[in-house]
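Researcher: Please translate sequence to structure tokens.
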Amino acid sequence: MNVRNHAQPTCSHDIEEAIKSTSKRILQYESQMQELSTKLTEGLSNFRAMDGLMQGSLDELKRDTQHAKHALEEHIPCIHEELHNSLVSLQELSHTLPQIQSHVAEIRRIYDSGREKAKTLVTDLTWLNTEWHERWRVIIFTNHSPVSRWWTATMRVLFAATFITFGWIAWVAIAGAYTAHRQRLVWGERLMS
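Model: Translation complete:
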């Protein structure tokens, strides 16, 4: 019995230690299970969020694909038709453009010649509307009168002859007046000879 009593405390001690170690392991497993549960909950939440984002992206991708198909079916043929019409118009314009350019050059030449004629006519009308003494002064004293060189030379010669004649007459009159004054001739009683 003594051996049995001695074996009993050893056995109960082993059982207690086994219970303690088992309870420690149970607590440790329980803590690990809680951590795993937390991680699983967090992972599941992240998975659901990612799944929601993926579903949204997939829906948006489907919608964009439908828009692209719609554009391909409706807009692209219209664009091709407009491009074809534009190319045809460009070809027609490339054939008519040289003709238009030659017409424009001819119109420009006619316009320039008409403008020059108009300037000439305005100059001629201005000259003809000028007073005769102003025209006479411009012809004799300037080089930019709108008359021929022969006419300019003739007018200058006539002016020189007239000027010399009037100068000579003035000289004779002044010389006669001086002589009459020197000889104390009275005007009106005797005429100068």
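Researcher: Any highlights?
Model: The radius of gyration is 64 Å.
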